[in-house]
Every structure is written in structure tokens, then in C-alpha cells.
Automatic annotation (TrEMBL):
Pfam families: Aminotran_1_2. Its cofactor is pyridoxal 5'-phosphate. The keyword Transferase applies. CDD domains: AAT_like. It comes from the Archaea. The lineage of its organism: Archaea, Methanobacteriati, Methanobacteriota, Stenosarchaea group, Halobacteria. Its EC number is 2.6.1.-. It comes from Halovivax asiaticus JCM 14624. SUPFAM superfamilies: PLP-dependent transferases. Keywords: Aminotransferase, Pyridoxal phosphate, Transferase. This is Aminotransferase. It is an enzyme of class 2 (transferase).
């Protein structure tokens, strides 16, 4: 007898990037040399002292469960980092999770109610739509999936007409935010655009959030990776402390994707509610990984600076190469992504570029930005040059 699948999973689409990775793997299996500009992880090793801290913690026997919300040393180090960003938090305001993705999952499950009969947390018998969540497009693909898993309804504001800047899009945001908006997700620096939102833009968001009593998720996972700009943490703005959940993690800044370590911070009441979900689902993040996280936060300044410098040089190189090819690309100020305007439909452009030039990129439409391809410059300068050359030679630029 076929199984019955819950609405909460059947309404989520598989990741659109899967088609590209599957095709890339197929080509590689056939012996092709694919320049992979589709990856969302730094191409640097985890700093050695962090690896050693993890090994030492294992040797010291830190292999059992920890306090559900995370070891006190790590939550203290995280609170110190958040204090430095202007957020007045202590260890009691933090939950450590296996990756920032899990943080976002716990937050959406904790804050979003589903529509009757659809969401995992449908309320009573009254007829209502799922809680409304506003996304700024282009947006990282998992936000949509997580909102759908929680049964929420999505409203989207498109930043593409403004070169992905938020400030000129504030009137559009004002048009869609209302008293029925439950949550707004802001990701700066942004995946996929690399945009870093200005203080004026963030203040505009704050004004709307306060006016309509909206909770804001500030995903700052790329916050350490910025060029010539020092981004403001949204929760540090006046009036935002009680309505912001700040998300961050170790994957990007410290090149620790496979370690699975992230966290979120917010008002204690939120931590109490989300903490129930956290303890009943994952129990805790991996013990020795949390110890490595303390080392990453406290002793990696040079390693992070070197990584960010390398990303900046690669960004500049790509911008030059595209300018030489006559393509105007919005300049990203952070993260390690760039949005390349391509011929529509972008899914066909990306498939073609992979098949003909063996260059892997992700279609912008996967992020709500048709007409673009997302390029990751977590690749060496040599591979970036090779990738652009191949795109030009094959007539894709
Ligand atoms: C915007 C954004 N937030 C969160 C994450 C989750 O990162 P992790 O679960 O590895 O900490 C990612 C990873 O790609 C991301 O791009």
C-alpha cells in the first residue's frame, strides 16, 4: 500500500540547484573538467587551530550530550560577539544548533502558525490562512521551503529592479507589510546577491517592523565576509531588540560547513519556546564541535582576514573579467556570490553553459531572480579565469 505523505512535505519543491549538480556530476563521471562556480561553501580548509581544538576536545572526552542550548563557554563567546555587534545579549539569549539552517528551521517552526489542516501547528477550527511571511527576493532557497514546512504563506518583494539594493525597494516593502505580517526575513550580506544593506535601508525596515509589530529574522551568516563596509546588525537598532531573532553560524566565516554549527539569539521568551523544539528534536549540537566553535570565535582573526582578502581579490577579478567581456554585473559588497545577467530563460542558459562550456552556475530563478545566474567565487583565481574564458569562447557572454 502506498504511504501517505504529509502536506507539509509534499508542498515543498526539491531544490532547483539539484538538477545542475546532477548534470555536473554526470559530466565529471564522463571525465569532463567542470569549473564549478555553483558551490555555497568556502574553498579554504578550516583553520588549523580550530581543527586542533575539536581534536583536543574529543581526546578530553567531550563526546557526550551537552546542555541542550549549548555549552556555557560557547554561548558566552557568542554573547560576547553579539555584544560587540551592539546586541545586548547574554548566554541565556542563545541557542546553539547543528548549523544555521537548523536555527532557521527552529525559528520558523516556533513563530509561524499554519493554515487549518495544513500546517503542523494549525490552530483550532477557525478558518484562517497560514501566517504571512515577507521575503526579499532574490532570497536563499531554503527560506521558502522552511516557511512552507511551517504552513506559512509567502509575500515577496523583488529587489532585482534596484540592482538588489534594499533602500530603493523600501516603498515596495511598505506596500506589502501590514498588520497581518507575522515575520520578515532579512539576509545581509545576501545569498545569492552579495548585497549588504545600508543603515538607511535597515532603519527603513525597523520603522515598518515597529509600525506593524512584525518579528524580523536577521540572517547574518555572511556578516564577517564584507568588503570596505561594516554592516550594522539589524537587532542593534533602536526598537529592534525585542522583535529580532539574529541568526549566525560558523560555516562561512570559519570555513566549517561540514562541522554543522550555528546559533540564534533573541529575547528569552523566544529562547524558552524554541528551546522545547530544539531539545525534543536535536537534543544539542555535537559536543566537541561546540568546543571548536569557541576557538573559532576567539582565535581566528588572521585566518578570517586572509580569507576575506582572497574573496575580495576574486570579486574584483571577476568584475574586471566581466567588464572586459562587456557584461555589467552589480557589484557585491559581501558574501562570495555574484549575480550575472544572462539570456532568458536562465535555467536553459545554466544548463547550456554547463553542457557546452563545462561551467556550473545556479539559475537565478531558483532564488526568485529570473534572468540571472548565481556565481560563487569560492574557487581559485585560475579557475575563475578559466570559467569566464570558457563562457566567452562558447558564446555565453
Ligand atoms: C543565507 C544562508 N543562511 C543560512 C545558511 C545555512 O548555513 P549552515 O547551516 O551551514 O550554518 C546558508 C548556507 O548556505 C545561507 O546561505
Amino acid at each position: 500500500m502506498p504511504m501517505h505523505y504529509a502536506d507539509r512535505v509534499t508542498r515543498v519543491e526539491p531544490s532547483a540547484t539539484l538538477a545542475i549538480s546532477a548534470l555536473a556530476s554526470e559530466l565529471e563521471a564522463e571525465g569532463a573538467d567542470v569549473v564549478d562556480l555553483s558551490v555555497g561553501e568556502p574553498d579554504f580548509p578550516t583553520p588549523e587551530n580550530v581543527v586542533e581544538a575539536g581534536q583536543d576536545a574529543m581526546d578530553a572526552g567531550h563526546t557526550g550530550y551537552t546542555t541542550s542550548n549549548g555549552i556555557p563557554e560557547l554561548r558566552e563567546a557568542i554573547a560576547d560577539k553579539l555584544q560587540a555587534d551592539g546586541l545586548n545579549y547574554g548566554p541565556e539569549n542563545v541557542i546553539v544548533t547543528p548549523g544555521a539552517k537548523q536555527s532557521l528551521y527552529e525559528i520558523t517552526q516556533t513563530l509561524i502558525d499554519g493554515a487549518d489542516g495544513q500546517g503542523p501547528s494549525a490552530r483550532g477550527t477557525s478558518s484562517r490562512a497560514g501566517d504571512e511571511v515577507v521575503l526579499l527576493d532574490p532570497a536563499w532557497v531554503s527560506y521558502e521551503a522552511m516557511v512552507k514546512l511551517a504552513g506559512g504563506s509567502l509575500v515577496r518583494v523583488d529587489l532585482s529592479p534596484y540592482d538588489f539594493r534594499l533602500e530603493p525597494a523600501l516603498p515596495d516593502l511598505e506596500n506589502v507589510i501590514s498588520d497581518s505580517t507575522e515575520l520578515l526575513i532579512v539576509n545581509s550580506p545576501s545569498n545569492p546577491t552579495g548585497a549588504v544593506y545600508t543603515d538607511a535601508a535597515l532603519e527603513g525596515v525597523r520603522d515598518l517592523a515597529v509600525e506593524h509589530d512584525v518579528t524580523v529574522v536577521a540572517d547574518e551568516i555572511y556578516g564577517e565576509i564584507t568588503y570596505d563596509t561594516d554592516p550594522t546588525s539589524l537587532g542593534s537598532l533602536d526598537g529592534m531588540a525585542e522583535r529580532t531573532v539574529t541568526v549566525n553560524g560558523f560555516s562561512k566565516a570559519y570555513s566549517m560547513t561540514g562541522w554543522r554549527l550555528g546559533y540564534f539569539a533573541g529575547p528569552e521568551e523566544l529562547i524558552d519556546q524554541a528551546g522545547k523544539l530544539h531539545s525534543h528534536s536535536v537534543s544539542c549540537a555535537t559536543n566537541f564541535v561546540q568546543h571548536a566553535g569557541v576557538e573559532a570565535l576567539e582565535h581566528t582573526e588572521t585566518a578570517v582576514d586572509e580569507m576575506v582578502d582572497a574573496f575580495e581579490q576574486r570579486r574584483d577579478l571577476l568584475l574586471d573579467l566581466f567588464a572586459d567581456a562587456g557584461v555589467d554585473v552589480p557589484t557585491p559588497d559581501g558574501a562570495f556570490y555574484m549575480m550575472l545577467p544572462v539570456e532568458s530563460p536562465d535555467t536553459e542558459w545554466c544548463e547550456g553553459a554547463l553542457e557546452d562550456a563545462h561551467v556550473a552556475t545556479v539559475p537565478g530563478s531558483a532564488f526568485g531572480a529570473p534572468g540571472y545566474a548565481r556565481l560563487s567565487y569560492a574557487a581559485s583565481e585560475e579557475r575563475l579565469r578559466e570559467g569566464v574564458e570558457r563562457l566567452v569562447d562558447a558564446g555565453y557572454l
